UniProtKB/TrEMBL annotation:
This is Ras-related GTP-binding protein. One of its GO terms (cellular component) is cytosol. InterPro entries: Gtr1_RagA (IPR006762), P-loop_NTPase (IPR027417), RagC/D (IPR039400). It comes from Myripristis murdjan (pinecone soldierfish). It is found in: Cytoplasm; Lysosome; Lysosome membrane; Nucleus. The lineage of its organism: Eukaryota, Metazoa, Chordata, Craniata, Vertebrata. It comes from the Eukaryota.
Length: 383
């Protein structure tokens, strides 16, 4: 039985402007004429590869199309490359190409030049519940071939379906796969080819976390975003802040304190609550209106003196913060600093018109307002 193709969540339809990066095929809030004219195939891409039934389509459907994990049981095997352009619904502005498990690199119709040249990341999915010897052989063949065409690709290995494994077994499997894959590369004198490994499952948040990290590596402005988040939280008494792509719940940046899974899950759940409540009570009677827009703001006080604070940053992005109740007493300060932060984010992504962008590029100077941004410090002084 095949499931009908699922449109991204309801909130996507209400978005009206395009927000995206420029350097890696990302644009500005004003739709760029060149980009809108560009063929979807020219967009940078993330490839999902791996053996049959390893879980590639499930990952793509769960992360980007809100399919519930249980529904993936009914997904049919992919028989040809499925190109999914998610840029209309998400900040993540590239294509995801889902490959069929039986792809044959030696088939003359397989154009590796065309496929690997415009690729930003290649995700190789290994089913950890299955015998992975064949998958390791396939991984080696795939990455070595892709590396020869394009050494700039980020190679990411998802050790997938780990929900069926005990904690010890997970660690052991990861160690073993890591060791064998790198030995194979060393034997082929491909030590420079770097593989990153993630333990993933569609039945918890690990798949969103892993995808977040894959996407972050493709964001040229990541250090700037992290810096802005660091400044924002340190001046506002906030413990942790994530910049979320609302539709996919991928976090595209966070401050430099370590991410613990629980905080990330808490923030993901908050997004779900906000969107659900907004869909029920925020839309017009005829169903028109936006579930997520400029006014989107939510504060949730937990019974352990923790406060969750969500605010709209751009039409695709939300800032979700975790802070203590005492710090939230200075809400005015937080709001002021958020205002500065939001402005800076818009500057980073060149929210201005494409003409302004071109002018700045010609002048070679960063934006003035970003340089002159002033946060209010906790002691009241501007910094
Ligand atoms: N337990 C578990 N099962 C999963 C997970 N992800 C996917 N599956 C299951 O794995 C099976 C295969 O998933 P698909 O997404 O169709 O696999 P695929 O790699 O796209 O398969 P092909 O299209 O044949 O290449 C489905 O029954 C999924 O429900 C996971 O994280 N945990």
């Amino acid at each position: 039985m095949s499931l009908p193709y699922e449109e991204p969540a309801a909130l996507t339809g209400s978005f009206s402007v395009v927000e995206s990066f420029r350097d890696f095929g990302y644009g500005t809030e004003e739709p760029d004429m060149d980009e809108s004219a560009a063929s979807p195939d020219s967009k940078p891409r993330i490839l999902l590869m791996g053996l049959r039934r390893s879980g590639k389509s499930s990952i793509q459907k769960v992360v980007f199309h809100k399919m519930s994990p249980n529904e993936t049981l009914f997904l049919e095997s992919t028989s040809k490359i499925y190109k999914d352009d998610i840029s209309s619904s998400s900040f993540v502005n590239f294509q995801i190409w889902d490959f069929p498990g039986q792809v044959d690199f030696f088939d003359p119709t397989f154009d590796s030049e065309m496929i690997f040249k415009g690729t930003g990341a290649l995700i190789f999915v290994i089913d950890a519940q299955d015998d992975y010897v064949e998958a390791l052989g396939r991984l080696h063949l795939t990455v070595s071939r892709a590396y020869r065409v394009n050494p700039e690709i980020n190679f990411e290995v998802f050790i997938h379906k780990v929900d069926g494994l005990s904690d010890d077994h997970k660690i052991e499997t990861q160690r073993d796969i890591h060791q064998r894959a790198n030995d194979d590369l060393a034997d082929a004198s491909l030590e420079k080819l770097h593989l990153s490994f993630y333990l993933t499952s569609i039945y918890d948040h690990s798949i969103f976390e892993a995808f977040s990290k894959v996407v972050q590596k493709l964001i040229p402005q990541l250090p700037t975003l992290e810096n802005l988040l660091n400044i924002f939280i340190s001046h506002s008494g906030i413990e942790k802040a994530f910049l979320f792509d609302v539709v996919s719940k991928i976090y595209i940046a966070t401050d430099s304190s370590p991410v613990d899974m629980q905080s990330y899950e808490l923030c993901c759940d908050m997004i779900d609550v906000v969107i659900d409540v907004s869909c029920i009570y925020g839309l017009m009677e005829d169903g028109s209106g936006c579930a997520y827009d400029k006014e989107s703001l939510a504060i949730i006080k937990l019974n352990n003196t923790t406060v969750l604070y969500l605010k709209e940053v751009t039409k695709f992005l939300a800032l979700v913060c975790i802070l203590r109740e005492e710090s939230f007493e200075r809400k005015g300060l937080i709001d002021y600093n958020f205002h500065c932060f939001r402005k800076a984010i818009h500057e980073v992504f060149e929210v201005g018109s494409s003409a302004q962008h071109a002018d700045r590029m010609r002048a070679g100077s960063p934006s003035n307002s970003l340089a002159s941004l002033k946060y209010a410090a906790l002691n009241g002084n501007a910094v």
